[in-house]
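Re: that backbone. Tokens:
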């Protein structure tokens, strides 16, 4: 999948602020990935009972030489994660834990 982010006149390719999303290409259908580097895609028939006919998926992107290309991985997230179940809190690394069990823990590195 090819990203529709392009390096601007900025000279620092490692600075995410130096990239602009081509909204025109996305709007006219010449690009399939949205600003989050994802799109709605078909689910294989054998998984449709569990996931439905389509799902939103994120893509890793590469350039014409197959080298990783900005934004490399999901650039933002689509949707609402909702609230954790009662008595649980989402940890910074995405797991659910009881309030008492996360006190004093460090995020894994």
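Recovered sequence:
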């Amino acid at each position: 999948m090819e990203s529709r982010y392009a390096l601007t006149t900025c000279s620092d390719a490692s600075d995410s602020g130096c990239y602009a999303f081509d909204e025109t290409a996305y709007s006219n259908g010449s690009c399939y990935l949205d600003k989050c580097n994802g799109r709605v895609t078909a689910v294989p028939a054998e998984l449709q009972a569990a996931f439905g006919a389509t799902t939103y998926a994120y893509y890793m992107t590469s350039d014409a030489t197959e080298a990783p290309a900005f934004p490399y991985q999901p650039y933002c997230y689509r949707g609402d994660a909702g609230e954790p179940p009662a008595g649980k809190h989402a940890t910074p690394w995405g797991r659910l834990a009881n309030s008492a069990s996360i006190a004093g823990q460090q995020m894994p590195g």
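Residues 80-109 form one domain. The mean pLDDT is 75.
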